[in-house]
Amino acid sequence: MPALCIWIALLCAGPCLAARGQDRILYDDLGHPFPLAGPPQRIVSLAPDITETLFALNLGPKIVGVTRYCDYPPQAAKIEKVGGLVDPNLEKIQVLHPDLVVAFRGNPIGIVNKLRSLHLPVFVFDSGTSLAGVLEIVGKMGRLTFQTGTAESLCRDLEDRRRQVELALENVANTPRTFLSIPGQGLWTCGSEGYLNNLIVQAKGINIAGGIRRRWLNLTREQLVHDNPEVIIVMAKDFEAFRSSRDRLLADSRLKTVEAVRTRNIRFLDENIASRFGPRLFQALVDVARILHPERFPGKP
Amino acid sequence: MKTQMKRPVLLLTLLALLALALGMSLLMGPAPTSGRDLWNFLFHGDKSYATIFLDLRLCRAILAFLVGACLSLSGAILQGYFQNPLADPFVVGVSSGASFGAVLCLALGFQSVVFGVPVQSLFAFATGFALVIAVYLLSRRKSVFKVETLLLTGISAGALASSLTSFLLFLRSDSFEQAVFWLLGSVQLADWRQVVTVAPQFLVCLFIAQWLAKDMNLLVLGDEAARSLGSPIESVRKVCLAVATLLAAVSVSVAGVIGFVGLVVPHGVRILVGPDHRYLFGLSSLAGGVFLVACDLLARTLLSPTELPIGIITAALGAPIFIYLLHKRT
What we know:
By secondary structure, chain A is of the alpha/beta class.
């Protein structure tokens, strides 16, 4: 009988112990196990998207290294630079003695492997294809940095925001055909695999390139004329850059039959907000929804 | 100065420069390290900078040396092979073939590591080598084997591979930036495993080249004359091509495409010490190695912590030196 009791106790304890063991290992988006030792004190971020998310989880003071592209929030600019997205400097990272290096899609895999071979604790995130993907990253980042509570409340806030947009757009009569212009040579835009497509869909628009299974692609003028968007949203780093892009589109005689050009319905979207796969993407959702359905968002932005 | 005198002088100069370049490579970098840190590390077992000195700086400098030596030796062999000062490791299509392999690997999304070697490097090596074999077989099918045919076939096949590379880059704009970085060449990701793979291959190739150096000297007289002097010219040519290709493919697979070293360094050495291959091979390897260590030092310190692609430095530094040497001679 005592033996039976011990067995039962073990059987009950087994799964509990196993579950606790699993808690201490988190798998990154490349499938590498990462042991969770404790709240990280010295974090190096290898992408602006990551930096932004870390700051949103109140981890700003713990960040010791960022890339030269990390410009949001403004405090990030004061942190030591470790190089760029594709060319982070290994030595620079090494001397910062980080206890967590957060890498992102876009960092070369060679760099990530090299960091691992230097025994630096690397955790890699992949960018998602939708707003829900941001919540996943925030949640996982929360577990990684022992900020589960903050992460949960941030996710709730973001989800509330999305929900508000959804409510405001309930039963809209029209879903305008939209062309989202991304900075670059030619007519760059996002296909169905790009998260900005999800943004347009959630803002009740139709992405004219949404049928193409790509992340990013370069449309031809012919496609643009054929798809005839009602709205053109130009992502630009500031209003000045937007104006020159808009004027180029308006002046292009080959595009004069495009409805958005005819009606001069070309609108500005802040590239800095919309091009980072982080919490501010929900702000971009509000911006795009306001562009596509201004009547549902009365009042000044 | 007599040529006989020039050789030891050049050798000593190069060794001194190598020591200087290695020393500076160890001391300089984005992490602030002083001579005292290095001293403490070497003689007092201070481990605080061990990773930086050994795994980052030394490993990288050694790999740069090996890559430079491989490219330079490959160039020296091919310039002798083609009897043409414009020949370099990439003229027979190795670099285009290897680049294609690397970009294909990125496009297919293979990012794994086999036996410590990234699949990308294996792909690069295999395609580079395969392209040269194809070029060789194609040029041999003619009844008479001519060096010019090989050269032109190599250039055309290289152009074909480059166009396929551009096509893949165009299709996969996602991986574009990574590929561009790789195409420009870098030894940033140097790893001891790479050193261990490259070093023996380089030494074996240097040994073979040195062994064939006398026969290579006879090529100047023309194939017929060389044959009549009893040199097994066909075999020498085959082995030379294989060795030069192996060297170029190895270096491209670990460091990407680094131009100019294979063309300029052996040529410069030839201007300084004359065309005798018995000395040319060893000195070219040494000079190429020193040159690339110096270039890498500049590449990583000029705009620190940003790293320049090493190809920018090799050309910027190599071209003026080369032009000076050319004009001094005439």
